[in-house]
Amino acid sequence: MAELADLRITRLGEPRYDSPLAAFVAGRRTNEHYVSEDDRVLYHDTVSDLDGRAPDPHSWPSFEPGGPRRRLFFAPTRTKVGIVTCGGLCPGLNDVIRAIVMELALHYGIGEATGFRNGYLGLTPAGPDPVRLTPEVVHHINQHGGTMLGTSRGSQDAEVMVDRLVELGIDILFVIGGDGSMRGASKVVAEVARRGLEIAVIGVPKTIDNDIPFIGQSFGFVTAFSRAAQSISVAMVEAQAAVGGVGLVKLMGRHSGFIACYAALANHEADFVLIPEVPFALDGPNGLLNCLHQRVKERGSAVVVVAEGAGQDLLELSGATDESGNARFADIGVHLRDSITRYFAEQGSALTLKYVEPSYAIRSVRPDPHDAVYCLRLAQSAVHAGMAGRTDMVVGRRHNRFIHVPISLVISERYSVAPDGDLWMAVLEQTAQPVDMTL
Amino acid sequence: MAELADLRITRLGEPRYDSPLAAFVAGRRTNEHYVSEDDRVLYHDTVSDLDGRAPDPHSWPSFEPGGPRRRLFFAPTRTKVGIVTCGGLCPGLNDVIRAIVMELALHYGIGEATGFRNGYLGLTPAGPDPVRLTPEVVHHINQHGGTMLGTSRGSQDAEVMVDRLVELGIDILFVIGGDGSMRGASKVVAEVARRGLEIAVIGVPKTIDNDIPFIGQSFGFVTAFSRAAQSISVAMVEAQAAVGGVGLVKLMGRHSGFIACYAALANHEADFVLIPEVPFALDGPNGLLNCLHQRVKERGSAVVVVAEGAGQDLLELSGATDESGNARFADIGVHLRDSITRYFAEQGSALTLKYVEPSYAIRSVRPDPHDAVYCLRLAQSAVHAGMAGRTDMVVGRRHNRFIHVPISLVISERYSVAPDGDLWMAVLEQTAQPVDMTL
Amino acid sequence: MAELADLRITRLGEPRYDSPLAAFVAGRRTNEHYVSEDDRVLYHDTVSDLDGRAPDPHSWPSFEPGGPRRRLFFAPTRTKVGIVTCGGLCPGLNDVIRAIVMELALHYGIGEATGFRNGYLGLTPAGPDPVRLTPEVVHHINQHGGTMLGTSRGSQDAEVMVDRLVELGIDILFVIGGDGSMRGASKVVAEVARRGLEIAVIGVPKTIDNDIPFIGQSFGFVTAFSRAAQSISVAMVEAQAAVGGVGLVKLMGRHSGFIACYAALANHEADFVLIPEVPFALDGPNGLLNCLHQRVKERGSAVVVVAEGAGQDLLELSGATDESGNARFADIGVHLRDSITRYFAEQGSALTLKYVEPSYAIRSVRPDPHDAVYCLRLAQSAVHAGMAGRTDMVVGRRHNRFIHVPISLVISERYSVAPDGDLWMAVLEQTAQPVDMTL
Amino acid sequence: MAELADLRITRLGEPRYDSPLAAFVAGRRTNEHYVSEDDRVLYHDTVSDLDGRAPDPHSWPSFEPGGPRRRLFFAPTRTKVGIVTCGGLCPGLNDVIRAIVMELALHYGIGEATGFRNGYLGLTPAGPDPVRLTPEVVHHINQHGGTMLGTSRGSQDAEVMVDRLVELGIDILFVIGGDGSMRGASKVVAEVARRGLEIAVIGVPKTIDNDIPFIGQSFGFVTAFSRAAQSISVAMVEAQAAVGGVGLVKLMGRHSGFIACYAALANHEADFVLIPEVPFALDGPNGLLNCLHQRVKERGSAVVVVAEGAGQDLLELSGATDESGNARFADIGVHLRDSITRYFAEQGSALTLKYVEPSYAIRSVRPDPHDAVYCLRLAQSAVHAGMAGRTDMVVGRRHNRFIHVPISLVISERYSVAPDGDLWMAVLEQTAQPVDMTL
């Protein structure tokens, strides 16, 4: 569990400049809508969590709040900023890029930034040339999905990347990426420290699966499950129109079933939700096959929603030879499709199975307004943190408070659906599927 | 400020029955995704809030958590439930109705509920007959905006309504409505208590303006500001195409400017946001008219977003004779339209003003998936609270925790945009409008 | 009725250059998907229309087909082209601009065009400077509503405009605008002819009301009625939730009720549709007020859709003094609202009237895919016509064939809903409103 | 080519009853919006088509117009009607069902119809029981995708089905289905005739691929290509963000490439469109692989849209052994994916290929407003035809006229994209792909 020491944010040094926003924040006090820069946001939020702790709240685990500071480490108007987007697409990447550039220009007098293209590749000599990002260039990019900077997967050598930052005189690097990219950012931070440079690295965590811990919800997630819910509707409509109709929807979620859970709740129509965090069996009285068969008999059709990381234990048992001779390629969607088909045939029951896999349609769209607001505010927070000389951290919003979280912490574990939490309970209440499908 | 005593929830009596969900929740402990029914959710969340308090967290202000209980006050399968929707439309009303009925049926074995029609009117002899709500009846209603029960404004005599509840044998009444309706619910509670009846009254707070305190965000709000953001886009497109184009968008928000703020942030294109919480002047160097005129000169066009409750002081000065001779009917949208038109004419500047007022288009739609999930979970929470014998309370989700809040508290004040909070700061950062427009 | 002579298209002169598309169209013959440039499209399409005509089809009224020609009047790569958008916004303006620029560049080797800003104003010295339109500039504009060139209403002096065209060396001017703009284009053509210049003027007819004759459906119309249908849904949802609910929707359509008719058919939920082409009474047994009152009594609520130009005779009778003392400002929507309110009060019936007027929300959006395709193909057609040296004409698609129509013809009359046509019949079938509401 | 005799519609007998709509249509004459029931709609529409024909237009190929008749064969109020939906889903099925039921009830006094479930299966003893269709039952079904009657593929024995019709006393059977279903309908007609029964069979042609001839555009097609265009956007966004990005989109279209063409035109972003009607090579200078490789080198990314029926000749060469050992299962999408991957590897070029296959997402949605109107009017037309005693025909709208077409004709051939027509030309103009990709 995180303790106070784990939640400390690294600072490049003492602040050196007055912020153009100083007058703006002067005299503000913590209230329901604001946390003073001198205050901290508690990690815990229940009586039982705090019961028995030492009496001084300052000793309790707590986060540094986000937001503008009265004093800055980097000079307004003169600071050089780089931005890079890494990993898979996620709704909101362009919104974050745009908002960083706009915030720098409007409030810190920094009229342009350097956009590194195609992820960390753009920070190497082999990569594409960077682009100049000005308010004019980014003005409309939020109206498009994807990322105007392009992206790529994988990391690059930290020394090479720091060489490039030094060469271009970059003071602050904003990394928009997932846990892999944050590991890469962490290495850049270490190399920067090793050389004794004053370069800040601020992360904006991106994960369409919502599997990054300590930051509340990740940007783009609401948009993603909203689109995923449409796919469940597609499957339901197809299933209901068919004789013995079964809709099978495979959604993103290698390690965390958030998209599957939220999409199923939004849609109200999934009969079974299968996620990586909760094991299930195919066979047995409570196994998927028997329950699904029963549901189709009772209602004429049924919909199964499965996260791509669910039931991996089932694949280890059967995957190697059945589909492709290669366990790495085992696919729970295909495995379920084949298993259901076989079972219904064995039972002599009619089956019309429709397999829906929305994949890219979920992540390439522009964000819904809710996520658009969140991207904007995250990016504003990131700029404030960078200008104040924070580094080795990401911005997040937890329990409605914008906070700073050390990179080390967000890459230390995964956020996942708690089998005994209220989200999974809501799913069970909604689907009425067996609580334990392994029996 | 709320203290512990204010946050106590009334119980009709000791629980008398095992819950069908008992095994389900047994042994669960508080974690990031769950709060045990024996635990409480802290009201405060920063170090400064708790610094200097008595050391025992049990003495601090805290909320009862929502969720299923191991023991119930009302008998599963035999409890009679009523549902009523009151006041103006809001996205998600049908979702809440549906989820209450489904939760009762699936988990408490209560196969039907009584739907009172057209708000509290339906609880009087003069009102329309109630309808029978079963899973079949409500199955698809979430796919439509509005409320299948109809609604009406205004309260009715509490004695008459309690007579009706008694006549129909209702054990739990779910009231989905705004602060006015919650005042009505409060009177029903008092009358129930006066007669010594065992009828629970549980509120699901509804306010499209998001102006109910202590409950976090209200259902339908995300959908509402998403639609409102579309209207800002409409105004922007019109303004940009015209010579001296000004888009003026009047949005909901009598007392709280949340919709205006969030819609403006989502859209990124408002130049000025005017809300009830922050005064502004028309005249003067920082007044709207001069600033707007300048903005149009610089950029060719501009967009003004105004909440309907903004600038009421301006209307008191000028409204009475100009528009309709009646201060009650003064309309800030019309007033701004006329003032801008006059000012641009005085300055000899071209003006093409487009006035957009989306009104009903924002509130009559079905909820976006994010709100759909929230409605579902709020409704599940409400059912759990009712079955456990709670009364005189509403359900809410604050800082991501489902909680119970006394009705007295939610009608004690309004939730509004803090002029020194981070939301308004984000708006100022985004629009770059003057911090103080009264100078 | 149009005769052959009326349908002749003016040519600037004999073609002088081979088209880069020559090989492409060589050898094509008229078929279901193509009309040869040597063929013509018949105006008439029924046996009765042609019965009794002279036997030679060449003598019958017929249109010149659209499409690429083997030979051109203007030189590929060297021709200078201007584009102007005039009048109110309409979905698809940016699509047409984009497609003209792309077609010129990709197929005629003309890499840029001159964009005149803010309508005909941009063709005068007082107007804004023109912009350079290249494939890069226009690449994404179709993703936005409005027009990147801006627009304005009203015409300008033809001599001044031709001076400007000559000054800039423009060979072909594409005018995207409504009937007023086409009258302006006509004057430019006359002035060009008077001076003996070789400047082609090609119109792309724009009318959100679909009231331009001979061209089939106008671009953006499908998008417009689709949005209008949403407003009818809004009104219906509001009406159904209220006690004595009446939804009143005022839609565009000064002279033609197409938007009202199609939106009502799309929506299936209007109870009464009122259009300029079909008179109706308020009073009397078949008058709107009595019928509406009956409908609300029977069904609990009702929706009235009214085109802004409907019932003008009613306003002439009552408008002058009742609303604003000025007949020009009489507003059928407001008049109906007041009349309905008065009538229900007189009858002692409950009424909750919701007045919805979507206005700009309908016209400022980007086009639906159907209209996007149509805009693209219209623009391609316009470019082919211009390069071939046609002038004083507009492009259209009638009965699925792209055709050329003289400007004189499209401004000679309005296209409107025929009271004895099948569209109005479908509306009557759908609404079951009285066939004659004046009785 | 169709001649007059081919276009004659079968009548069950002389009309026997006055239509309730008689007064409504009396005295109407053919005009731009209406064709009199005594008139006919010409098949041909160009001068060259009619040049040299016998002078009497009555002898030319022409269609019987749709619409209400003054006299009916079947008795209003007493006629029994059946409805069945067959084959794959298509946007608008529920709209057609709803409109048939509403038209029967509102205008012919026939308050209910029999809905046969799961296609022709529902017309056999083995099938599910039929459902009663009343205005109440169908009132909201148009708000949902799919078909409330369910569907199935394949035909059933005509004798068995006619037995069932006789058993239930059905007078008119409306068949909503594709060419296979129309063949089935044809057999029912033959069996009805063999027995000398007076049962009318009216088809409403359904084909999401738009491949049914003589009927203009099929319902749901506009909605389908609109959704397909979204998938192209998805592919484009993914491709543009990647290093060596190629988006590959497989769309419906076994025999006709209409969806691929229209979606590509709507989207403006496809670089290559491959359809069944136009052969292409993978290799060679104009082959897909070289052209695609070039395009990616020039622009950084490219999008390929392929209809599922395209390039089947390529699969015959390579399919049998490569993918699954079974030529029937060869899949052009997978084949292209593999071929592109191999080619880029051979060239040593970076490639990030994203394969998008929207499948069910296109066909399970509710129709866009344009299609909703069309479904409504087609259904009204079908009811009029049935009540007038027509049989063995389908309704359609060709060149904006509602017409009757013999079933024999619509199953005689397929409608497809003409390689020398203007649609394909527009695609070539838009994509700038080689005119002949086999060179």
Low-confidence stretches of chain A: 318-329
Rg of chain A (C-alpha, Å): 24 Å
Please give the share of residues in helix of chain A.
25-40%
- Largest interface (C-beta under 8 Å): C-D, 76 and 77 residues
Named CATH architecture of the largest domain in chain A:
3-Layer(aba) Sandwich
Strand order of the largest sheet of chain A: 3-4-17-16-10-9-6-7-8
Biggest sheet character of chain A: 9 strands, mixed
Question: Could you explain how this protein is built, in words?
Answer:
Four copies of one chain form a homotetramer. By secondary structure, chain A is of the alpha/beta class. The first copy, chain A, has two domains: 4-219 and 367-398, Rossmann fold (3-Layer(aba) Sandwich); 222-364 and 419-431, Phosphofructokinase domain (Rossmann fold, 3-Layer(aba) Sandwich). Chain A has helices spanning 22-25, 47-50, 93-108, 135-138, 158-168, 179-195, 221-241, 258-267, 288-299, 312-322, 332-346, 360-363, 369-387, 407-410, 422-431; strands at 10-11, 17-18, 41-42, 62-65, 71-72, 81-85, 113-116, 131-133, 172-177, 200-205, 245-251, 272-274, 301-307, 352-356, 390-391, 393-398, 401-406. In chain A, the strands form four sheets. A nine-stranded mixed beta sheet of chain A has the order 3-4-17-16-10-9-6-7-8, with helices on both faces. A four-stranded parallel beta sheet of chain A has the order 12-13-11-14, sandwiched between helices. A two-stranded antiparallel ribbon of chain A has the order 1-15. In chain A, helix 5 (158-168) crosses helix 6 (179-195). Residues 318-329 of chain A have low confidence and may be disordered. At the C-D interface, strand 3, helix 2, helix 3, helix 7 and helix 8 of C face strand 3, helix 2, helix 3, helix 7 and helix 8 of D. Chains A, B, C, D: Its EC number is 2.7.1.11. Chains A, B, C, D: Homodimer.
